[in-house]
């Protein structure tokens, strides 16, 4: 399988989340990479984004499953034409994360070619950038989908880091009701915007403000919130009678939703209520797990350098599998500018990641064959 060509082909599909036409074309392209020896399942549910599952064997219980996505954030037209320069591919999706989706597809072909004795699959969602609602529906409809080991390739940035912790993303909506009046007579109205601002100020007593303009905290493994969206008011000279705000909380594994709700209740003022728009759970992996250590050792041998463990505030689709008890290995290649106009991936890191995956799969299959490894289906 020509890894670079597939990466560049995938990038050329303008799969911005919600662009159904291009997403469908991209899915067709991926399916056509494999012959009828590969099991191809395409999940569709109404207007939700489709989910593609490819595997070397039938069924929903996997020994190893690669998890990623094909959608990207919006970009200018020229960013969908990949440009190679000095071991870098500049393009939208080069780092997040079509190059690493290509690695997963490459691994599937390797399992097929080598006839490895394991159940292997590649799961690709198409609305990860806006909440993975399609994947969530798929997992709800097929709760039997499971994997002993999940290779999560959606943590791009540094191939010398294996992520062992991800925070829990919780989105909360604030809703304030007021009373409209002319802007020149505020004492005759109730400003819903003002009420939201009061609540946001109260929230900062529990969750401080951080930015590039402020010294970075020594410990960044802490709960944070940013005020993602604030909307209130229709015209300049009318007191706003309605205002809403969307808050993006990132909670460590030491914090609970109940604790967050207790804090929210303390921050509210009359006329303001809150709703949890969405929540998930943190991902925490045992750094001494035998498969994580085995993977780490292989990566160090191939890269000829030390691999470190790290924690990230972002969230990926693998959290659903971690909740089911999967061993999640979060690792991908290096690059810069995720979601930015200068996004690129270091191509050598993509090739290294592909080699790491192949070596790891070969070892897992060997353990499986000799009886040292217990297949998921009999756990």
Secondary-structure topology with pairs:
Layout: H1 3-12, H2 20-32, E1 39-43, E2 51-55, E3 61-69, E4 83-85, E5 88-90, H3 94-114, E6 120-125, H4 133-141, E7 146-152, E8 161-166, E9 168-177, H5 192-203, E10 224-232, E11 242-251, H6 257-267, E12 272-278, E13 283-284, H7 290-303, E14 308-312, H8 319-324, E15 327-330, E16 335-336, E17 344-346, H9 347-370
Parallel strand pairs: 3-6, 3-7, 7-15, 8-14
Antiparallel strand pairs: 1-2, 2-6, 4-5, 5-17, 8-13, 9-11, 9-12, 10-11, 16-17
Helix pairs in contact: 1-3, 3-9, 5-6, 7-9
Explained architecture:
The chain is α+β, with helices and mostly antiparallel strands. It has 2 domains: 3-167 and 282-378, Zn peptidases (Aminopeptidase, 3-Layer(aba) Sandwich), CATH 3.40.630.10; 174-278, Alpha-Beta Plaits, CATH 3.30.70.360. The chain is built from 9 helices and 17 strands. It has a 6-stranded mixed beta sheet, with helices on both faces. Strands 4-5-17-16 form a 4-stranded antiparallel beta sheet. The two termini are 34 Å apart. Mean pLDDT is 94; it is low at 373-379.
